Amino acid sequence: MSDGSVQQKQSQPAVPLLEEQRVGEILAAVPERGQWRYRPRRVGLVWRSKTFRAGAVFSVLALCGLVILALVRDQTGTEGFLVGLGLAVLPVPLLMAAFRWLDRVEPWSWRNLLFAFAWGACAAALVAIIANSFATRWIATATADPAGADTLGATVIAPVVEESAKAAAVLLIFLFRRRHFSGILDGVVIAGFTATGFAFTENILYLGNAFGEDQQIGRSGFASVTAATFFVRVVMTPFAHPLFTVLTGLGFGFAALCARRHRIRRVLLPLLGLILAMGMHALWNGSGSFGPYGFYVVYGVFMVPVFGLITWLVIWSRQRELRTLATELPAYAAAGWLTPAEPLALSSMRARGMARDMARHQHASAYGSASVHGSATAYSTSYGVPYPSPGYPAPGPPPVHSPAHGGSRVVAQVRRHAKARGRAAARAVAEYESFATSLAFLRHRARRGAADPDFVARELELLHHLWQRREVAGPALTYAAQATGRLRPRSVPVGPAPYPPYGGYGPNPYLPPHAQQPYARPPYGSVPPPRSR
Fold first, then answer.
1. CA dihedral 242, 243, 244, 246 (to 10 degrees)
2. Other residues' Cβ atoms within 10 Å of the Cβ of residue 316
3. What is the C-alpha separation between 354 and 484, in angstroms, rounded?
4. pLDDT band at residue 251, thresholds of 50, 70 and 90?
5. H or E element at residue 411
6. Which of 298, 427, 417 is nearest to 359 (CA)?
7. Three-state secondary structure along 151-204?
8. What is the rounded distance in angstroms from the CA atom of residue 476 to the CA atom of residue 436?
9. Mean pLDDT across the chain, nearest whole number?
10. If you average pLDDT over residues 357-363, what whole number do you get?
11. What is the pLDDT of residue 297?
12. Rounded distance, CA 452 to CA 497, Å?
């Protein structure tokens, strides 16, 4: 193509250029930090109020918690309850940390995770205790066989009731947090937190009853029932309930990956996961009836291999999510919204953590004393990357109130401000990473035909959030990409990068003036626009 044709094409863009003042108004209208999710404005009925819904959920869970507390204390006694509580809380931090580690790519907010945990510990446990007791008593009365009623209740009634009660939390988050429920890991994490809360309450009950039994027969030490119960439920099988419910979470996760037109799959997959969870739970509860070694056979031949298989699946899913970032984000880098190095850094958990740390050190040293500057230089040297790196300017001179000017109070105040600036910079980079991850998953869902009707508005809002934080996050992510070896320093472009046509899914009137180009379809394949409801 000749130069003249190029100039003619650039002089008549397909999308009208916005004036600089208009772009500033649009960028200034982006929601503040914390309002990360696009939500249409809804007015009218009182139960549509976010405050009302949050208060209602909290009230219901608090009421269930008080009732379950009274029931467990009534069965175990005060002393047994306290002993059971102290022992049952031990595996909870470990399980929560494990599921939180799996959720590092696009983490759920703690509000949603704590809701899932509270639902399992309070609502699901209360439903299970009441329903299991009622069903066992009814079977015992109908058959006049208390021992058979207990066995039938443990192997048939309990799995159905407990797994259904725990699955309700996953269903609620799937329905009301659908925008964030994007794949397998989301279902696993929510199901894991719900089951951890349920196992916590159940362990209090079992350990408290075991302690009360030891008090009656005067037994203590390693030969006590409490020690045996603790070893079986907390040491050997802390993952039992999470493993059951994770199967339900996998069903919801696979349903989230399905296109919107596959409605039957989106219904059948969660039901299949729930049925598998019930069957595995029933096999585990009935292992004691298979003979003296039935428990060990089920544990070694079935439970441990299934646990290993699901662990491999969720780790593979996390790596797949990182590959999704590396695949989808280059389209936005080509359009000028991201630097070429950012997709490489965002697709590595080590680079993402390094970018946050580097931003913290850099912005603290730019404001603080010479000692803070030395710590940033030492941090850079520890990764074998020269500091400052290309695209990451060196910090300025120490402020007037630096340690060289004396005054312990002034020095302490300067260091506090420097730490605060460093934390703010690290938080901005973390938010940038979260927005970029959501943007990549949003584009990936659109390519699969699972985009929501408000796809364009959501995409533009995420791009605006990235634009607000790119001044802090861009250099940090470029530095991290170089430090981890994912981008070599010589591959960093010198000077301003060109802005080829935007690769989005609709007209993008919000590009800055210097980046405006004629709109083009995505460079790798034709993606149909989101269907309207």
1. 80
2. 11
3. 9
4. very high
5. helix 408-447
6. 427
7. HHHHHHHHHHHHHHHHHHHHHHHHHHCCCCCCCHHHHHHHHHHHHHHHHHHHHH
8. 14
9. 75
10. 83
11. 86
12. 32
pLDDT digits (tens, 9 = 90+) for 121-180: 999 999 999 988 888 888 888 777 777 777 788 888 889 999 999 999 999 999 888 778
With bands split at pLDDT 50, 70 and 90, how would you rate the model's confidence at 368? low
Non-local (6+) Cβ contacts of 411 within 8 A are 369, 401, 402, 403
Largest CA distance in the chain: 98
* Overall average pLDDT of the 232-258 stretch: 89
Distance of CA 293 to the CA centre of its chain: 39
Contact 488, 389 (CB under 8 A): no
Residue 84 in tokens? 């059971």
Q: How far apart are CA 114 and CA 110, in angstroms?
A: 6
Burial 1-11 (b: 16+ CB within 10 A, else e): eeeeeeeeeee
pTM: 0.72
Q: How far is CA 195 from CA 9, 233, 270, 388, in A?
A: 59, 14, 16, 47
| Type of residue numbered 101 | W
The 3-class SS string of 205-230 reads HHHHHHHHHHHHHCCCHHHCHHHHHH
> How many C-beta atoms lie closer than 10 Å to residue 214's C-beta?
21
pLDDT(1) > 50? no
Token pair 């494990």: residue: 98
| Type of residue found at 35 | Q
Helix (DSSP H) and strand (DSSP E) numbers for the chain: 20, 0
- Residue 204 sits at the vertex; the CA angle it makes with 211 and 283, to the nearest 5 degrees, is 100
Neighbours of 368 (CB within 10 A): 27
Q: Cis peptide before 388, with omega less than 30 degrees from 0?
A: yes
CA atoms 261, 267, 273, 275: torsion sign: negative
pLDDT computed for residue 16 by the predictor: 34
- Confirm if 339 and 487 have CB atoms less than 8 A apart: no
